[in-house]
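Our platform keeps sequence and structure together, in a single record for each protein. Such a record has a labelled line for the sequence and another for the backbone structure tokens. The tokens are whole numbers drawn from a learned vocabulary of local backbone shapes. The remainder of this section carries one protein's record, kept here as part of the documentation:
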Amino acid sequence: MGLRVIFAAFLGCLVVVHGMSKRSNVGDGCRVRSDCGALPSLACLHGDCNYCLVDADCADYSSDTSKRCVQRGETTQCMTKGVFAPFSIRDAFTAWLAVVLTALSAACGLASTAGFLVPVYVLVLDLTPHFAVPLSEATRFGMALAASWRHRDEKHPYASHRPLIDFALAGMMTPATLIGTIFGVLGNLILPSWIILVLLMIFLVAVAHTTIVKASKLQYRGALLSHKDKMDRVTPASNATTELEDFDEYGRLAIDRDSGPMLRQLALEESDPWPFRAYICPLVLAVGVAVIQALLRGGNGTPSLVGVVCNSKLFWGLLAPPVVLIALMTIAMARKLQWRTVVHESNGARGGYIPGDVHWNYLIARVVFPVHCFFAGVATSLVGLGGGLIHENIMLEYGTLPDIQTATSAFMLVFISAANMLQYALAGQFPGEIQYDFMWWYVLLGFVGGMLGTTILQRWIERSGRLAHILYIVAGMSILQAIAMGLSTLESVLQDDRGVTLGFSSLCGPTHW
């Protein structure tokens, strides 16, 4: 599904929501707690929205123990309970689902598009999207750590001197994505839940379509291989010349690595299994810049370090320096990719590329990829899904091999999810009074699921040869979740006859305006 369709849907939602915004105040009439707004909110006491006195005031039904009455400043608010206060059957079931779904996503190479988490947290944990999206980012961060650790020693399928992860490509795409996450986090904070859910449904359908296409290609490839012997894959030798003939559309590779100092420098850089100085440290710096701007601006979770007033001119002005700095990082990395293309062309022409290399020029490196990555960042931090889908499509469209795309996406996700997770924490977007208990618990669950998926489950899939069948199941799950989210959204909108949760949320507090 193209960016134009998603962008049009987003604009349509904004037009519909304009003018709906209402504030839930003390004394407003109510029938149930949800009439007083999304958590954190007032309680419904004797038909009026008011400050809670005990935990039972916050319950949505008689046996509800998932809410707490918490002192916030001079008043009280209803909030979600901590993850271990107590650890309920619902929490255990959600934890099991998180591990299973992250394992399935990691094993199928769908780590960057794992969109099953947000619906699970909304439908099972009964969280609003404002809490479910940050929680999904924490889970995906753990999963990405596990997947990247699994890929750490793997090599390029057609160039044994290169790691499987394309660090240069990640170095350019990640900063551009981080710029989008800055705005996506703000969007998640202020947009009404139903808009986020509608966008999530669109992305779930898009993921289902992409997964079905991937499964169909795998089935077709398997049918071809059953009628002919597999061609032996040539492993590049360590001498001066490398030749590849088994990837027909790329032709023959003949690169003399001793033909010049630039080529030797490029070969040395490409062979580094963990290029900390060249690529990893700049990505850590980019994440640091995104987090520092959140600390300086402050939010519901953490006050500004320099006393910036929320929604003031300085508050918005502090967005400019990090955006400019990270954009300069993106340009610098794009120039590196262009330099790599020039070196290859000057030492072997375009026919000398290793399969999976992108032919970088000014437009592709500095416009096409960064623009796509920006929208990917907005999508992943706004609805918890879609960023990986955009990344995958743009990489595959320009010739990146599926194995390289999967490993590189997982590596990028470590930094993108870390930046999102920390920005959400500073904005107070995790559920519970403590917040960090939810965050680190689901990071751990994501890591466990990622390790299980990239080891045990992936090996079973490889032995059984049933990846296509599992992908069809994943696509079916995505469609079912889209339907469930649609019904849930429709139900919540119909029940909210006062329009409390239909409008925009306040940027500087939990109430609606």
